[in-house]
Fold:
Amino acid sequence: MSGSNSSNPAAADTGAFDQPLGLTVHSLPLPQEAALVDEQRTRSGRWKMLAVMLVCAAPVVASYLTYYVIRPEGHRSYGELIEPQRPIPPVAARTLDGQAVNLTSLQGQWLLVSVAGGACDAKCERHLYLQRQLREGLGRDKERMDWVWLVDDQAPVREALKPGLATATVLRMDPAQLAQWLAPEAGHALAEHLYVVDPMGHWMMRFPAGVEPAKARRDLERLMRGSAGWDQPGRPNN
Structure:
């Protein structure tokens, strides 16, 4: 019987296992690369947070931009704009019947503020009358503004004045603390002006001594229009 080449299955199987295994080796990231990735994630998170804050603040920013920069009427405001604006200090005041009130509780409404002693001379009476009339002149927007008399001494308020103060907020304040917040124009006294405070609690405008009602009313109307998109009547906790 002639010789023949025959395959050996066992040998074939052994040969298959003699081949080296193919392994893929992944290198670990360098510490510098890991730090860079973390930094990029942190930066991205900060940008997203900033974007959310800008969206929330956009109505307020837009109204202030309209009033301070664009000024559609094309003329300067009558009142002097205060820069930087001064926030309401967290100090104690008292009602006329002696109840303690934190001044920051006034936040949440536009405020038209006057300052005078309890005796209230003719100039003080004129300011109180103007405050009431200017607020009433805002029509439906009057509910967005409070008029405030800050009494800077311990003199009693005359009984004859009290009926006219029914819609006012009247508080006694220490004059030293008051002077750290409001300030008069150079050469004038604190009681010679009317002051405007925005709903966020910032003193932002001072009307000149001897205020002209028509010009002051024009400024207040513009403030109400400019803030209509974000300010609502009443305080948030009411």
